[in-house]
Known about the structure:
Layout: H1 3-170, H2 174-194
Helix pairs in contact: 1-2
Amino acid sequence: MDKNSAKNALKESSANDDVASSETLSAITNSDTTSLNQVRDLLFGADLKSQQTLLYETERQLKSDIDELKKLFIAKLSDFEKKTAAQLSDLNAQLKQESNARAQDVDKLNQALNEARKTTQEMVQQASSEAAAAEEKLASEMSLLESDMSQRFIATQEKIDGAEAALDDAKVDRSSLASLLVALANEIEKDNGSR
């Protein structure tokens, strides 16, 4: 045999020995465990069983308590969610109501402002039209007054010119001139009194 074949054969026999020793060890361990359990039952049998029973009852009670706590927690949580939802719903309704009331107040205020603006515009338009009418009337009266004054001035000028021409032509004496001037003054007084 060559070296490689010898090594392989050695490995195989070693592996077979390991499997056999492992199986043997497992059988011994199983038999030891069984023996150990038997010894323990003999020594501590009643105490161990009562401890196991107590442990089982404690675990069962613990599970029951946990289940009760879960149920209680779920019930409390559900109740809290319902109360919170109801409070949020009430708060939302109150906010909507207040929002609607404020919106109505704003609408009323806007209407009042629009009416005030409209009234102000109407008053301004009325005042403007009255001012325009007064200005037009004043202009018309001024025009009439200017025309009247112009006519009176022309009439007075014509009388003065006529009196001057009459004086030049007739060489009227002072008493005639005085009576003409008195007549002229009376005419002017009448004109001023008629205004």
